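Researcher: Batch entry, complex prediction.
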Amino acid sequence: MKGRAVLKSLSVPAIAILLSLAAFAAIVLLTGKNPAVAFIGILEGSGWLPRSGYPLGSGQLTDVFRTLDALTPMMFASLAVAVAFRGGLFNIGVSGQMLFAGFVSTVTIGYSGLPSSAAFPLVIFVGASSGALAGGLIGLLKCRFNVNEVVSSIMLNFIFQYVISFFINTSYIDPVSRHSAAVGKDVCLTLTDVFIGGYIFRIPWALAIALACAVLTLVFFTKSVRGFEMAAVGKNTRAARYAGMSVERNILVTMFLSGAFAGLAGVTYYLGYYDSIMPGTLSPMGFDAIATASLGNMHPIGIIAAGVLVTSLGQGSTYMSNIAGVRPEIASLVIGLILLFSACSYYIKYRLEGGAALRVGKKARGGKMAMNTAAAENEALEDGRSGKEAGKT
Amino acid sequence: MSLVVIDGLSFALPLFIIAVGGIYSERSGVTNLALEGLLGFGAFTGGLFVVLTSGIFPQGSQTPICLSFLFAAIGGGAYSLIHATLCVKFRANQVMSGIAVNILAVALTGFFTYQVNAGVFGSPSDKFMIGVSPRVTAPGISDIPVLGAFFTNVYPFEIMILAIAAFCWYVLYRTRYGIRLRACGDNPQAVDAAGISVAKARFGAVAISGALSGVGGMCFAYSITANFSPAIYLGAGYLAIAALIFGNWKMIPALGACLIFGFARSAAYQVAKSLEISSNVSDLAMSLPYVLTLLLLAFFSKGNRAPRALGEIYDKGKR
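Model: Structure tokens for the complex:
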């Protein structure tokens, strides 16, 4: 029974991926290029297939580790989205929180010249806590001042972007690269230029923390009282309040936790994947993370798989563009499509198992009611997990 | 001082028409975070029309400008049907759908702009150069001190926006269609019971928001950026959402919010310029409208009341 439930929950992301890849193939065909070549190009560029030739000192494993390097912040960012979503909030300010945490850690620890043994834990700590503060601010605005979290996080995105750009441009700019001055290698969370067996590697050791966080999040939501309360507030605020839970406190904790993950994404992005900050821009990762998290069904383990897929698309796009002659933007097109199709999960689910329910519904109350019947059955089947829409009042 | 008014208006009014679109969509019960993507896609179709027909119209003719707004509205409206289909028919999470539409718009327009430039003009670039719209100054009135600035160097589209907005106000608050649309956002069950299709009303509302956002995007393409390029995605769609929420989902207060934005933005620019401080400080000045919005939202959101059924999927069977 459990196996079937897992299979069922996998069917929606699988269909979303298939549809997106079909659209990808169609667009590549329209531009007169070969979709198979483009697809293989993505796999080769992201290290999952061997390329025909490698530059000196790098091999397929180099590419794999480069993809894992990008996966690390993506994992944290997607966890940030998923935690907020489970708590009934939408954190689209992940990019801004990443930038804030990245900047604070760069300025405080990145330029301090501390040895790795001291710098690593400090960077992680400062990143997580500054991200949590930024996220907590959004939560505070929501429960104290009734400010919609979507709007306040958008405003904060802009504010962080401009204000941090100002500070970088005035105090921390590297005149050559037009980025902030690079942080030292001892501080960078990704170990660069590691030579093993003649090949050069980047080792994103923080990925281990990301994976541990994913598991811990799962345990937190399934086994702890606080996690249960947060999910209850997310599903039905009124019912949670009636049951005696503090909605305000849970909203605060949710945004705090979500912000902390966003902060970890920020430090692994700006002090790991990169070693500097480009002033005046937000990373698109905070938005791609929404696609990743929803493809992963907002489930911490699903996010790992979804993260590998989305990151590989991004990493492979440059190489794909070189060998297949397709614009690299197509990768973000596919990411957008994945989000689009996984947002339709409700409809896909209904289509998949709608057959029987549809007939019952037609007999009982006519065609248009069928969807509601199927939906009701879905909810009953899935221990209320898909009952978000119904519980939102 | 007059520059503050002139620049402020030319930013605030396009923002306002996008916010009006957002109000239509949200009053009908569909959360519309897709405004950013819709305005970009509208500007893309308008810009595409201008560059494709650039040889047909005589030099200096105003026809392509007028027609480009029409095409921007059509393009934005058509593209918004994705959001409408997802939210109304496929029962998608509306916030997620909006973000998907935004991501797709950036990718699609970037991709196709490049393809068209490479395929038709043989010059691969990510821009459609369409130039700046001419400005008009009302003779006589513009000489009045301070107030005259409102009539000086006005883009013709600003007048058009006010006309469209007035019409939209009339439709939303004074017609049967408008009251049904608003009812869909507050009590869709009642609308359904009255024998009107909630789905159709919401589809229409989202399409209107797409068309209006397209017009707004085209205004930006003709003024601030002077081309269609990825620079069109400067966050105006999100600002419009903030404006309409700040305006409590009503049109006149939303106009006020847009004007605050526009003037704060242009004033910050002018102050930074007049003090002749380094361009870095302009970054700090640019953050001013957003800080202001956040503060205003924090102070005035207590009494905010969103449409009751906003963001909810209409479920006939629900009590």
